[in-house]
Structure formats: C-alpha cells, structure tokens
Please model this.
Amino acid sequence: MRLSCILIVFLLSLSGLAQKIQSPVEFSHCNFTAVAHRGYSEFYPENTLLAIEEAFKRGIKYCEVDVAVSSDGVYVLHHDPYTIARTTKGEGTVADNTFAQLSTLDAGDWKEVFFKGTTVPSLVDALKIAQKYDAVLYLDLKEFDAAALARTLAEAKVDPSRMMPAITSLESATRFRQHCPNSPWVWFSAGPANPNDLSWFQERVALGCRVFERSDDYLLADLQWTSAFISQAHASGAKVWAYTVNNEHLIKQLADLGVDGVETDRPYVAQLYVCGHDP
Model:
C-alpha cells in the first residue's frame, strides 16, 4: 500500500514537471523569426503539406518552400529543377509532368518509410494551410510568372499576404507589384554597392519588399558592412534575414548582430534558442 502511494506521488510530480517545462508554441513576445526551410525539413519530407503544417503547429510563422510549374501550368512544391527523382520515384522534371501525374507520386517515402503516401502538393493547397495558421509561405520560385501567381492566389481564396516570393530584379518586382499589389516579397539578389545608400532600400520597399535576404557567410564576412546594411534596411521599414543556418549558436550570433530572421531546417529549435527557451 505504501509503495503504491509513493508511486502515485512520483507520477503526479512528473506530471507537474511536464506541465512546467512544456515547450511554447507562441512566440509573439520575441522579435526573431525562424523561417522553416522547405517546411520542417529536419524531421519531415521537404516541401510537403505535412512539413509545412508541422512547422506552423509549433508557432513558426514563415515557411520557405520551393515552387515549380507543371506541364499544365500548375504551381507545385518541389525543389530540384532538373529531376523529380530525388524525392519521388517519378521521371523527368516538374515541367515534364502534369499536376495530375505529380500529385500521384509519393514524396515522403524517401525520407522515412512511415511518411509513405505523402504526396506532391499544389501551391494552392499550401496557401490554404498558411491561411489556416495565420502564417506565410516564402516562395523560392524556379519559374517566375507574376500573372500565374495572381491566378494561384485567386484560386486559393486566401489573404494576399500569405504569399511572399523571392524576387531578384527590379523588373520582376515591378511586374509582381502590378499583378499582386497586396503581397509582400523578399529581395534575393545582390546588395547595394554602398550599404549606407538608403535610397537603394527605399526603392525596393516602395515596390513591396519587406525583407532583404543574404547568406550567413556574406553577413559575417564584413561586420561593419553588415551593420550598415541592417541599419539602412530597418530605416527603410524592412527586415534582414540570413540563409540557410542550422547551428543554433551561429543563429544566435546572427540575431545578436541585428539579423531579424534565419532560414533553417530546425526552425523550432532556432526559435526556442534565440527567444530564451531551452531547446
């Protein structure tokens, strides 16, 4: 009887401890943004609805996904531009297959056998997941078509802010602004010759840019340049992100420099670590 009482007390204490150390899934108090690279790709098959939703469930508000166009003009989530064979058993490229063909392919089995049956999703379905969680998809576009992106938004029937593509030229930014005036975008190209040139940042922000993204190596190569770059980006009303970093200590170093967010395969660990929690 005494042993049973001790066991009950022990189990109750474990229950109380579990409640105290339960990991947060809401980070509104923290200004740092962990961007889930290809969804929660450390544990889940990249660029799938499963990987996206698992990141959003943990309070991650931005998922980077790779987007290509099928032979019948449908934007789908897939990374490799020259083959679909790495993550599926299909043949050729995304552009060689219709969406109907792509949507039957298994995109999960390559990661782990228990993900078997996870399929290649459309961007429309991914945007609906983002809408459900009040989150955003950051699009790495393998083929930029502003008009097609506008049609995708209309078909998804979601808030235009759910979609935020990477853009590499002012010409593309201008076209995107014309077709999707209420959608933000990320500048993913060379930085200014002079990081103190505020007008360079303002020109892009006026067209809808909300983030300037550079590699971590680039940002850490010249800290004086980076400090000026971050300062002027912030002065223009935009943020600075780095890609793609999986070491939480390096991520914290970037955050301490003033970098606002980082693309990572480990978004939940990164968000916890930078925001003051034990991963």
Remarks:
- Strands lie at 33-37, 62-69, 75-77, 136-141, 163-167, 185-187, 209-215, 239-243, 261-264.
- The radius of gyration is 21 Å.
- The CA atoms of residues 92 and 253 lie 41 Å apart.
